[in-house]
Design brief:
The protein is of the alpha/beta class. It has 17 helices and 14 strands. The protein binds flavin mononucleotide and iron/sulfur cluster.
């Protein structure tokens, strides 16, 4: 399969035509024929759980921009992005963007860091977001804002975008090879893990001082929190059985409750995964990567290096441990859960379905709508078993013009509590809000999943929507990106 052979959603001029395509693909995601606007709109219904109040069902997903300063402060571009998060009208701001708890834990040298010297900069981001949110919705009533706290683990690159400085928990037969790690590359010791846990405690206290209502202890996309969950082969108290693999989360939460009482905790989880994918070498031509294929080999079975993965058939998911994980969250009184999947580094078609691959990716191995439906269906399955959790869903941007029709149906039919919007925030942040108000949709601003916002950072440039946002299209980085895409 390649992008050319996949029907373009932009060419579907009506909802019935879109639904026909869903049927052709045997997908059963809900989709309404008409939009409901005003107070009855499912997307505008408030959410309440204990002391948590969220004014509507739209969530802004965390979206980083690789555009902070080398010491971890925001720049003008970062401030602009947070302005857009506010402008989205979302009453749940899930994290803003990944903010590292230490310099060593940064995913790139331009990632934000939470530390004493970045407090004024982070405060400005918060204030800007709230200002713009008020301008869109008229008030900041029931606006819940979190900060996503991260350590990038295996994917740390704190000092140069061209130099990986991995902090790994165990040796992974495929990812170690990709990162060129020798067999004796050191794994983090239990003592080093304790010190990272303390970094999370300090970071959470600072987030509370800044006024954030919750912190997200990031457990997704292959970063450190997520890697703990698949540390089956690690020895000692942070690896092996489920209790050990979730010890990091429990110790982070325990410390936060003690240093920052009253601060809510949330978790963004890659709820399922697959084995890493790679471009099919037999179908890669003239520098153009072929469709993605799983890097499976018989000696890797049963597969012991994934979470939410079926060990006998690691291309398929297994919900047993993700369900156990949600039970644990509930036992820890954590009610804010954001479900995503996979990783942008090793299976981007699972994590952010797109028609066009990023420069380090592969042609889509399936119609990206299948990827959207996979995340929606898995989220629905988990949500049904945990009605008390506030569940945010992910990966809707590929729905493009049909985003409001599908998401309003998903909320009404209880597939999910809140719809989290990622890439669409970069092009058309207020899309769902405007649709819920009955305003005309600006089709030219809709994200068409060109993936430049992923390709740019892969080439050491700031992320942004280069094709559709004139701020980036006419920036000094646009020609550098065009050049990088040629190679
Ligand atoms: C440029 C870019 C930056 C992202 N930054 C983050 C991040 O900081 N934290 C995170 O958890 N996910 C991040 N994501 C993933 C998104 O939050 C989201 O899960 C993904 O884009 C799929 O949702 P969508 O289909 O609405 O785009 C990022 C994605 C993109 C494209
Ligand atoms: S570059 Fe723009 S159009 Fe392309 S995926 Fe990113 S936000 Fe969407």
């Amino acid at each position: 399969m390649s992008a050319e052979s996949i029907p373009r959603l932009a060419s579907f001029k009506s909802v019935p035509r879109f639904k026909e395509h869903l049927q052709t693909l045997h997908l059963s995601v809900p989709c309404d024929d008409d939009l409901v606007t005003g107070p009855e709109c499912p997307l505008l219904q408030p959410l309440k759980k204990g002391s948590i109040r969220i004014g509507n069902r739209i969530a802004a997903q965390p979206m980083e921009g690789w555009d902070g300063t080398s010491d971890g402060n925001p720049t003008e571009r970062t401030i602009r992005r947070w302005r857009h998060f506010g402008r989205s009208g979302a009453k749940l701001i899930w994290g803003g963007e990944a903010v590292a708890v230490s310099h060593e834990g940064r995913a790139n040298p331009n990632q934000l860091v939470i530390a004493d010297h970045t407090m004024p900069g982070l405060a400005e981001l918060y204030a800007t977001l709230v200002d713009d949110h008020r301008r869109t919705t008229g008030s900041d009533h029931d606006l819940l804002i979190g900060l996503q706290l991260t350590h990038s683990g295996r994917f740390s690159r704190p000092n140069a975008s061209s130099r990986t400085e991995p902090r790994i928990l165990y040796h992974h037969p495929i990812l170690d090879r990709r990162l060129k790690l020798p067999q004796d590359f050191p794994v983090l010791s239990d003592g080093e893990i304790s010190s990272i846990i303390e970094d999370f405690h300090r970071a959470a206290k600072r987030a509370q001082d800044l006024g954030f209502h919750f912190v997200d202890i990031k457990h997704c996309h292959g970063y450190l929190g997520h890697e703990f969950l698949s540390a089956h082969t690690r020895e000692g108290s942070y690896g092996g059985n489920f209790e050990n693999r979730t010890r990091f989360l429990r110790e982070v939460v325990q410390g936060i409750r003690s240093v920052a009482p009253g601060l809510e905790v949330g978790v963004r989880l890659s709820a399922f995964d697959t084995i890493p994918f790679t471009p099919d070498p037999d179908r890669s031509l003239n520098g153009k990567p072929g469709p993605g294929i799983p890097e499976i080999a018989s000696e890797l079975l049963p597969y012991h290096w994934g979470f939410g993965v079926n060990p006998q058939d690691p291309i398929t998911s297994d919900a047993a441990e993700p369900l156990q994980f949600l039970r644990l969250l509930q036992d820890l009184n954590i009610y804010l859960v954001n479900l995503t999947a996979g990783s942008p580094y090793y299976n981007p078609h699972i994590q952010r379905p797109a028609l066009f691959p990023p420069s380090d990716g592969y042609q889509p191995p399936e119609d990206p709508l299948i990827g959207v439906a996979r995340q929606m269906e898995f989220t629905h399955k988990l949500k049904q078993q945990f009605p008390d959790l506030i569940v945010v869903g992910t990966a809707y941007s590929y729905l493009q013009d049909f985003l409001p029709y599908v998401t309003q149906a998903a909320i009404r039919e209880n597939w999910v509590d809140s719809v989290g919007i990622g890439r669409m925030l970069l092009t058309y942040p207020e899309f769902l809000w405007e649709a819920s108000q009955g305003r005309a949709i600006e089709h030219k601003r809709i994200c068409r999943t060109f993936s430049d916002c992923t390709t740019a950072p892969r080439n050491g440039l700031p992320s942004g929507c280069y094709p559709l946002d004139s701020y980036y299209k006419h920036s000094e980085f646009a020609s550098l990106l065009a050049e990088a895409k040629k190679h």
